[in-house]
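Page 37, continued from 36.
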């Protein structure tokens, strides 16, 4: 108790429960709400967890010299059709495409790299001889066959390193992903690695693959028979077990690499060895996008079951030129936010969440004190103290219940008796400390002193 203060009125803190209200409408299929309170199921759908992940990602990107870019949620359909590839499942089956009022074909962001490349070119972000290093946190939209871990709206954290052709850049990109996953607490992941060659060496491989696959088309899915005609490399990307079996013993792309691609892959592996980053060679790994050249990689987690890919990426040295810019090498990755959080839930990993609880809850027992409560909340907030009050004219008991539900540290009660003495009754709700009376003029200092000294 501060010097000169006197005991005031005692208030009943007994709590009672409340019942939820039902809703008529539901979120679209395979899209979800992320809530400010922990959900009863799927704890990963909790806003503080998302912010904690994003905070870690931003910090890791900052340490590696990457800066944030934000692009529109929709782009010209042609951007995705030309860059991702008309023969990919993304373009042929999964894009949310519509005609706008200007008769333009537009598509919700179907992947992260093409919009960043478009913005890089349109806004002249090239750094004049040095690399441009960008990161993004963006929602992605794909009309997929929905299931747990595969959502039609999902979020990606991603980076793009533009202007560097060295395999050391590939290694930095992979190392950043490893650092991010490690900081999150996801250690049980496997890095799968491959080289998909370049326009010089890939045609020779495709000829060998077509010759091999042609004799086995009758054993393959309808999708893979279509890919055989339209985009044969995508046959290797099929998740159908029959396709896997039919392609058993197919030619290995790495055996057809030209000298430059072979040297690039060898040097990348040497860099990863130097960095202590373990990896597995995967001859089937081609990723689902046409723009990849040379390096392709994925991170997989056993915690995710069938949908085990937590993120991936690769090099795309021809993409910027394909989008109308000068020849510019690039490499990057995208990692799924939802899948990371689902893995963390299954690992029961703790996350450093922001404390969203208010420091003070100002309680006004009646209309005569409500205006003073609103003014006091404003004063506390100006001092940097998070504060709440009641705007519904409820009873003291109901306001106390809300203060406890919100996890407020201090209940500040403005009873008429206290206000007559220019004071407030104050109680620490987190340690059941004795109620005390504080002069209003010293309330801000009292709370700040307790916060700075970590006094409960």
């Amino acid at each position: 108790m501060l010097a000169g203060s006197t005991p005031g009125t005692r208030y009943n803190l007994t709590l009672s429960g409340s019942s939820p209200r039902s809703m008529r409408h539901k979120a679209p299929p395979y899209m979800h709400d992320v809530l400010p309170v922990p959900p009863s199921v799927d704890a990963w759908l909790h806003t503080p967890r998302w912010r904690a992940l994003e905070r870690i990602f931003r910090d890791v990107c900052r340490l590696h010299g990457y800066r944030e870019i934000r692009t529109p949620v929709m782009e010209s359909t042609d951007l995705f059709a030309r860059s991702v590839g008309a023969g990919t499942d993304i373009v042929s089956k999964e894009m949310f495409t519509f005609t706008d009022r200007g008769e333009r074909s537009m598509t919700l962001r179907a992947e992260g790299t093409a919009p960043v490349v478009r913005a890089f070119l349109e806004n002249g972000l090239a750094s004049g001889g040095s690399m441009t290093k960008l990161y993004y946190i963006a929602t992605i939209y794909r009309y997929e066959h929905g299931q747990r871990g595969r959502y039609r709206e999902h979020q990606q954290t991603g980076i793009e390193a533009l202007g560097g052709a060295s395999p050391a850049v590939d290694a930095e990109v992979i190392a950043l992903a490893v650092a991010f996953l490690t900081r999150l607490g996801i250690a049980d992941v496997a890095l799968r690695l491959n080289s998909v060659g370049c326009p010089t060496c890939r045609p020779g491989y495709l000829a060998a693959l077509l010759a091999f696959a042609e004799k086995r088309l009758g054993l393959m899915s309808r999708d893979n028979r279509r890919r055989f005609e339209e985009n044969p490399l995508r046959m290797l990307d099929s998740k159908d077990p029959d396709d896997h079996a039919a392609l058993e013993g197919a030619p290995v792309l790495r055996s057809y690499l030209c000298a430059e691609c072979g040297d690039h892959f060898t040097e990348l592996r040497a860099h990863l060895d130097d960095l202590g980053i373990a990896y597995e060679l995967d001859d089937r790994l081609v990723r689902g996008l046409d723009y990849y050249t040379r390096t392709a990689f994925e991170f997989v987690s056993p915690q995710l079951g069938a949908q085990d890919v937590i993120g991936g990426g690769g090099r795309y040295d021809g993409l910027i030129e394909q989008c109308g810019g000068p020849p510019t090498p690039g490499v990057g990755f995208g990692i799924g936010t939802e899948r990371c959080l689902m893995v963390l839930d299954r690992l029961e990993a703790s996350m450093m969440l922001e404390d969203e609880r208010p420091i003070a809850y100002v309680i006004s027992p009646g209309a005569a004190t409500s205006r003073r409560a609103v003014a006091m909340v404003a004063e506390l907030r100006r001092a940097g103290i998070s504060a709440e009050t009641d705007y519904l004219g409820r009873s003291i008991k109901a306001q106390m219940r809300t203060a406890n539900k919100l996890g407020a540290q201090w209940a500040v009660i403005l009873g008429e008796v206290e206000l007559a003495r220019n004071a407030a009754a104050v109680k620490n709700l987190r340690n059941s400390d004795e109620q005390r009376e504080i002069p209003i003029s010293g309330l801000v200092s009292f709370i700040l002193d307790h916060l700075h000294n970590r006094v409960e």
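Confidence is low (pLDDT under 50) at residues 1-19. Flag for discussion at group meeting. The chain has two domains: 47-201+257-347, 360-452.
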